[in-house]
Amino acid sequence: MKLRQLQRTLVRHLTMRDYRAYERLLKHVQARGDVWMTSQGTYMAWWQERGKSTLRVTVSDGVCRAESSLKNAAVEKFPGEFVPAGMVRCDGASFSGEVWLTIDSALEERELLIELLKQEGILNFRVARDGEFFLSRQEVAPLLTTIDAKLRERSRLFEADISLIRQLIVDKLAARGLPLPRIWYHPVIAGKVVQAVLSPRYDVDRAITNVARVRRLEQRYGVTSTLYLRAFCPFYSDRDIRALARSAWVTEIGLHGEFVRNAGRYGDELAAARAEKEQLERLIGRPVAGLCMHGGELTLNVSENTLGAIEQAGFLYDTTSGMGYYLPYRPIVSGRMGNCYRLNHAFGDIKVSPGRNYAREFYEQATEQMDRVYKQNGVFVLTLHPVYFGVFSYLLHPRNIGRLARFFWDRVRR
Questions:
Q1: Strand, helix or coil at 336?
Q2: What is the pLDDT of residue 298?
Q3: Least buried of 30, 231, 372, 414, by fewest C-beta within 10 Å?
Q4: Sheet harboring 101-104: ordered strands across?
Q5: 89 has pLDDT over 70
Q6: Helices in 137-177 by DSSP H: which ranges?
């Protein structure tokens, strides 16, 4: 059985080609003109700053003003109208002064509600017993209970549930003749409001020597991406990782986790997670914020304990999941909202059947997914594997052949 799996893996490597298909996708996305093609770390830095920023909404003389502390913020008058100066006419308003959305202090799920308001860019809120625009426990608790359940399941979309909370706010403001101004999900870049994000991710399982060629392609289209490296890998050495990290064209390195495989060596998955993170940080000389779990060569690296290990090891975000919400979100872990964000990758080259029509199918399926994410104004994490960008160029390096041969021989003997 293992030998047949190894044979299928080798056939897949020899028949798949990402280079031209990927370039065609980048051309397609670039032509839109309003998609930010950036690494996960760069986008998450923006997302964090957005969540920490302020939004002050005031009404006077028939004008509603929205002012934010966030650099490159786009202010949207919901739905879909962007106001560069943050000023919206509201001549029929029956309210004047500063607009505060007040969260009921009796609401048990207020942490979740605050997180969702930040996610929606509705930052002019406070917690109190009453207020002009009051979000009562009776109104929002049932909606939050539904969202909480879906976050625990970690596999169900909840855009529709969030939209009900947003509509509740819209209705409260509209009753006083006011619009809903909020900070848009993405920044303004080169004078354009970003409508969606394409963020390539590379699972560097083996072909670390192919990364330079891949990044040269991305540089031609102004793309940055995230490379996920294994801290203890049989296919490349510590020296290879250090050399890659010193390259000017590497924008971000994350951890390709193997916690289950290394749990026996370190005691448990949490100890393995911390050891792998520390090892990779030592090799590259900078912090590691991102994580995606390595599927493994014939060994799964995800268990019921993995999510807890990820949470406790101190990662900012995780791109392992392939399903769920279109924007960064924090799952419920051990009954509480976690600290590690989830970014869902949704599609990757390994999902495309190898063969003669691979390039066409890759382009069509990736484009279809990008269009779907674009309509949702989301973040598309595209998962790619450098070995598929040229297995022959990978084999041209003698040390790669030796490492690959030793690995296959070891697995066959087992």
A1: strand
A2: 60
A3: 414
A4: 125-128, 101-104, 133-135
A5: yes
A6: 137-153, 159-174
> What are the boundaries of each domain within the chain?
2-34+195-413, 52-188
* Confidence label for 49 from pLDDT (cuts 50, 70 and 90): very high
* Encoded tokens for 397: 């390096």
Tokens of 380: 């598309």
Residues 200-218, mean pLDDT to the nearest whole number: 93
Could you tell me which residues are beta bridge partners of residue 135? 103
Quote the CATH superfamily of domain 2-34+195-413: Glycoside hydrolase/deacetylase (3.20.20.370)
Q: How many CA atoms lie within 13 A of 27 on its CB side?
A: 7
**E strand residue ranges, 148-251:** 181-183, 188-189, 192-193, 196-204, 226-229
Q: Which two tokens stand for residue 56?
A: 């002050």
Q: How many CA within 13 A on the CB side of residue 107? A: 27
Q: Is the predicted pLDDT of residue 3 greater than 70, yes or no?
A: no
Q: Which two tokens stand for residue 149?
A: 């359940």
User: 3-class DSSP state for residue 357?
Assistant: coil
Q: Which residues contact 19 (CB under 8 A, 6 or more apart)?
A: 213, 214, 217, 389, 390
The answer to whether the pTM exceeds 0.85 is yes
- List pLDDT tens digits, range 326-344: 999 998 887 888 999 999 8
Q: Return the closest-CA partner of residue 50 out of 336, 328, 343, 317.
A: 328
Q: Which two tokens stand for residue 172?
A: 């409260």
